[in-house]
Amino acid sequence: MTLEEEPKNVPKTKKNSTCIKTAIPSISENKTSEVSFTSYDQRSNLQFKIDLAPLEEAISKILSQPYANSITPGIRLTFMQRLNYGFALFYEDIKPRDPIEISYEFDLLALHKHQWKFLVELAKMLMFCEQFASLNYKDKYLLFKNSWRLIYELERLYSTIEYFGSTIDDWRIMFDDTTAIDFRKVKRSKEMSQETFDKSQSLWIPFQQKQQNLLINPMKTLKLTEYELVYLIAQMLWTLQDDEDYSEQTRLVAEDVSEQITNELHNYYVYQIGLTNYAHRLVKLTKLIESSKPYANSISSGIQLTFMQRLNHGFTLFYEGIKPRDPIKISYEYGLLALRRHQEKFLVELAKMLMFCEQFASLNYKDKYLLFKHSWRFIYQLERLYSTIEYFGTAIDDGRIMFDDKTAIDFSNLKRSKDMSQETFDKSKSLWIPFQQKQQNLLINPMKALKLTEYELVYLIAQMLWTLQGYFHSSPIAKITLFL
Length: 484
Fold this sequence. Notes:
Blueprint: E1 18-25, E2 32-39, H1 53-63, H2 79-94, E3 101-103, E4 105-106, H3 108-126, H4 130-133, H5 137-164, E5 172-174, E6 179-182, E7 188-189, H6 194-222, H7 226-238, H8 248-272, H9 279-296, H10 302-322, E8 329-331, E9 333-334, H11 336-354, H12 358-361, H13 365-392, E10 400-402, E11 407-410, E12 416-417, H14 422-450, H15 454-466, H16 476-481
Parallel strand pairs: 3-6, 4-7, 8-11, 9-12
Antiparallel strand pairs: 1-2, 5-6, 10-11
Helix pairs in contact: 1-3, 2-3, 2-7, 5-7, 5-9, 6-9, 6-10, 7-8, 10-11, 10-15, 13-15
InterPro entries: C.elegans_Orphan_NR, NHR-like_dom_sf, Nucl_hrmn_rcpt_lig-bd
Organism: Acrobeloides nanus
Keywords: Receptor, Transcription, Transcription regulation
């Protein structure tokens, strides 16, 4: 789930789509609105599509209200008092509920369903706070967008510790309100093949160990109270991003609220729990925010893992649409029209595959188009040869190459072209035969000798995509993303 731009009118799900719907409370009436999860053969073919429009509409409707949700008329409450009240209602809806099932399988669809419920409840929680609710819609949306990942991460770990306790070597983490995943024993993912999952373990296991050491275990040692968690949520919310265009009013409110919540935390330590020397605990507390950023922020090393996982997942769906399908016809005739038809299909599926990757999808349209434009031919060539070797094997003297998903051309015995006269074709052979022989020697045969794996192919696709062309003017963000 990404919220990288303000909500737009997203086309609604087609009537012939299969939808999974989750009821979420409406904003102003005792009715329910529905978040739709559109699924195409969602489990058997590892494909699902999610309709973001209902979620965006629900959040937009909540944040567009100009006044804070009422608590007790006539009583003036501080920011932390209001946020604590909102958190109590919020947590009642998303806390763990017995019995908790321990899972050893990732389920991205289940994760999205819980995240969407979390996002709606979080937006409602923040609207209990007058300082937040009184801001203009754009700034409320920016504050929400820039803080929800950090808040989500800390809340999931807080809920984990509340339910399972603070044993250091326990790798179970709450996934949604009824399921926890044991990351030490996770065996598969519903959204990728077993082969791809097994290969990805060498990437995400070290990252999970780092998260365990730098964030989860310190939280277990600290034994965070609910009030301290709410304080951290307030800090995350009001820490403004330097590159965002907030209004002057919002910057002044953020400064004022940050001072208020610091004073209220002091009062909590000194007068409520009798902790006068709390400086050391406060340092550890604020360190949790910094430790959670590499996990939740899209410019962290952790998301390098997510990029390859997402690209592998996208490739699985992409390849299902363009791979060779029996029976394969061997042709001795070149047809440009058939080539164009297959390339058109390839280009559409490739674009969809790349949009699974957050770093790519978050770029502006111009940069996405330039990266796509300058890489697709290389990716196409490599994929066709990979498919050829997968289907026909690695015999060095085999001149057959996959043309589309049902046809291969035997270039060593090519006799004609549908797009030129026989005379023109015969004359052109002196030009393209040396080129084909050079391709066979420098690219096809080395690929056959290498026996490229699917994971290695996806890695090469990533390299081709992010190798920026020196002559095209990409934005600084696109250039920075190259190094992520």
